[in-house]
Amino acid sequence: MAGGTDELVHEERPSPNFDARSLPISMVVLHYTEMKPVEAALARLTDPKAKVSAHYLITEEGRVIRLVPEDKRAWHAGASYWRGIPDVNSASIGIELDHPGHARENGGYRPFAEAQIAALIPLLARIVRAYDIPRANVVGHSDVAPMRKIDPGELFPWERLAEYRLCLPRPQCLAAGNPFPNEGSFYLALERFGYDITDQNKAVEAFERRWRPERITGVPDGEVAAILWQLLLDRDQGRTR
Ligand SMILES: [Zn+2]
């Protein structure tokens, strides 16, 4: 494990739910727990019968709890895919955010706690630097499992992280109109950017949740196409490391 991590970790709750990595670390996947209270989430993430885990859990108060060592493969992403990688767990560090999620019985979806984001930023900065993770590979669970997952959701403050160069910012200068000649080329580009497009509408929904969270339709329009176009253009021109 990279050194110098302990000042960012407040508590160790070792989980038995991990195995060996088969790929080098090249991604970070962010999640919400969709559970209340945090002790319930911790119990599940350390229960051998549940067979789920993450490397870190950050409470709403900003406590960083380590569950699985970074050099091990934690079980957070499930069946997932990103940029040609079908075993996202092997390639990623998983961070769970203590949060009630979209579940109505938990009180409904709400913004993430400021203390939690303030704790996430230095932890993520340390991880991104330690493994030289490209900004395009700091993603949400919904980005790598668009058919099954919607976390961390449309209220996650990606732009805050982008200010610290910890993920890509939303492109600002967009081409006028739809830059793709047809729908087929749009979906090919969406796949090239990283998404599993097996279910096209779900893939567009996930893309919108991440890049245009104020309007999620599942149907590509000119603005969505222009955002994707600009993201790929920036990446091809090497502006997005
Ligand atoms: Zn998740």
Please tell me what the overall shape is. globular
**Might you state the CATH topology name of the largest domain?**
Lysozyme-like
Number of strands: 8
Uncertain stretches of 5 or more adjacent residues: none
CATH superfamily of the largest domain: Peptidoglycan recognition protein-like
CA gyration radius, whole angstroms? 17 Å
CATH class of the largest domain: Alpha Beta
> What order do the strands of the largest sheet run in, or round the barrel if closed?
1-5-4-7-3-8
Number of domains: 2
Arithmetic mean of pLDDT: 95
> What percent strand?
5-15%
Bound compounds: zinc ion
Structural class by helix and strand composition: alpha/beta
How widely separated are the two ends? 23 Å
Structure annotation, total helices = 8
Features:
241 residues, alpha/beta, Lysozyme-like, 2 domains, six-stranded mixed sheet, two-stranded antiparallel sheet, 8 helices, 32% helix, binds zinc ion
How would you characterize this protein structure?
The structure is a single chain. The protein has helices at 38-45, 88-91, 114-131, 141-144, 158-163, 183-193, 200-211, 222-236, and strands at 11-12, 18-20, 27-32, 56-58, 64-66, 72-74, 92-97, 138-140. It has 241 residues and is an alpha/beta fold. The chain has two domains: 11-163, Peptidoglycan recognition protein-like (Lysozyme-like), CATH 3.40.80.10; 183-236, no CATH class. Strands 1-5-4-7-3-8 form a six-stranded mixed sheet. It has a two-stranded antiparallel ribbon with strand order 2-6. A hairpin with a 5-residue loop joins strand 4 and strand 5. Helix 6 (183-193) packs across helix 8 (222-236). The radius of gyration is 17 Å and the shape is globular. The two termini are 23 Å apart. The structure holds zinc ion. The site of zinc ion (ZN) has 4 residues, from loops. The site of zinc ion has 4 residues, from loops.
